[in-house]
Structure formats: structure tokens, C-alpha cells
Amino acid sequence: MRCKITIRKTSSNPIHYDYQYGIASMLYKRLANANISLANELHSHQGFKFYTFSNLVIEDRIKAKQGLNFTRAHFFISSPDSEFIRSFTEGLLMEPEFYLGKGKKANFIIESAEVLPQKDFSDTCKFTTLSPLYVKTMRKKDGKLAEFDLYPKDAKFYENLHTNLTSRYEQYHGKKVEQDFFEILDVKNFKPKRVSIGNSFRRCSLLTMKLEASPELVKFAYDAGLGEKNAMGFGCLGVVE
């Protein structure tokens, strides 16, 4: 299930290009307002978190020397859990004002939260990334295992996407995928992106692709996101009609 959130900026201060961590924090606080037990469960849960959100889609960009400036924008929150989306929507509307940034903070107000119609999926769908895909692996460096961020040029990128998606599906549904096939084809418009999360940087990918998988996996990728760190705003997908 997916919800479209429309926001309006009520101050002249631009926001930093790396705003995902700020939005993730705001969303968690709003969820706590509407459903504290669900928020506490998410906070204490050490496994996967089954939701994602997109980058801001800026509707009227204003020229700024530093950062992003605009008046109106929207973004999407997505999850396979309809109760989760309902609680998020209620929490956002209960307290519609929020801010992003440090120092000279930019103030916002949520104008609307619209739950979108459910989509039906077959075993093939063309997707575009609405927020960057993040995929990593462990490799030896100087005799020790270290994390390496992956790009689509690396075959391990696709293997880990598949493994991560099926693992999250099985944990969420409590059962194995009935028909587990997965292939990403026709990758185009690749753009590397470096995103700051907390005190570290992640190398990620923006792209369009054709995903061939069982319909249940295709739908789960759309609802819960693809790749890692979905709850921090990575791996949100949009359907290319």
C-alpha cells in the first residue's frame, strides 16, 4: 500500500541535499503520535523494517546558492502493511507541521496525505527508482572483512538484491516464496549517488530497470522497497507505465 504526502514549505531557508535522515526521523515521530506500540516495536526490532519512502518530488524549484529550495513538493510512503500506512497517515495529519535541517531550519506543513489505489502486478514490471538503491557486500581488505557498496556493474549487486528481497518477504509473510525466480534486465539511466546518513556516506544507484520475478516478489519489492536501508529512504520504486 502506498500513500502520497504533499507538503508546503513555510520558510525561505533551503534544505540540505541529504535530507533523507531528517524525513526518516520525522516519520518515526509522527508514527509514535498515532500508534506508540507500533513505533516502539519498530524501534526495538533488530531485523528488517517493512516500509520505505521516496525522495522529494519538487513541484516548483526555487534557485538557491546552497541546498534545495521550493514551495511545494510531495513524496511517497510505501509498505505491505495497511495498518502501518494508516497509522502513518493519521500521525502526519495529527501534527502536520515539521522542520528539516540544523541551524537555520526549514519549516513545513503537510497539506494532504492520500492513500493510493492498490496496483496489480504480473511477473514482469518496469520500475524506476524514486529513491536510491543501496546494496552492499562483505569483502576482504588487508586480510579483514570490510563493507563494500555495490553498483550495477558488479554481478554481486543483483545477487544481493535477490537474497535481500526473498529474506524480507519470508520474514514478513512467515513462509517461503512459492516461485522464487528473480532477474533484473534492461538497466538504463544509471546515475551513481552518494548519500550521507548519520556520520557516514553510502554509494547508491538511481536507475530504471525491468524486473522479472514471481508476482508476489514484484509486488513486495514495490510495497516494501528494494535493496537495503529501506526505512531510511532507500529503494522506493515507481512503476514506469
UniProtKB/TrEMBL annotation:
Residue limits of the CRISPR associated protein Cas6 C-terminal domain? 117-237
Tell me the keywords, alphabetical order.
Answer: Antiviral defense, RNA-binding
Q: Which residues form the active site?
A: 28, 43
> InterPro entries per the record?
Cas_Cas6_C (IPR049435), CRISPR-assoc_prot_Cas6 (IPR010156), CRISPR-assoc_prot_Cas6_N_sf (IPR045747)
Instruction: Offer an example of a GO molecular function term for this protein.
Output: RNA binding
Give the UniProt record's GO annotations in the biological process aspect: defense response to virus
* Record Pfam families: Cas6_I-A, Cas_Cas6_C
> What are the residue positions of the site described as Transition state stabilizer?
49
Judging by the UniProt lineage, the source's domain of life is Archaea
PANTHER family (UniProt xref): CRISPR-ASSOCIATED ENDORIBONUCLEASE CAS6 1
This chain's function reads: CRISPR (clustered regularly interspaced short palindromic repeat), is an adaptive immune system that provides protection against mobile genetic elements (viruses, transposable elements and conjugative plasmids). CRISPR clusters contain sequences complementary to antecedent mobile elements and target invading nucleic acids. CRISPR clusters are transcribed and processed into CRISPR RNA (crRNA).
Q: State the similarity comment.
A: Belongs to the CRISPR-associated protein Cas6/Cse3/CasE family.
Q: What name goes with this protein?
A: CRISPR-associated endoribonuclease
**Lineage, opening ranks:** Archaea, Methanobacteriati, Methanobacteriota, Stenosarchaea group, Methanomicrobia
Gene this chain is encoded by: cas6
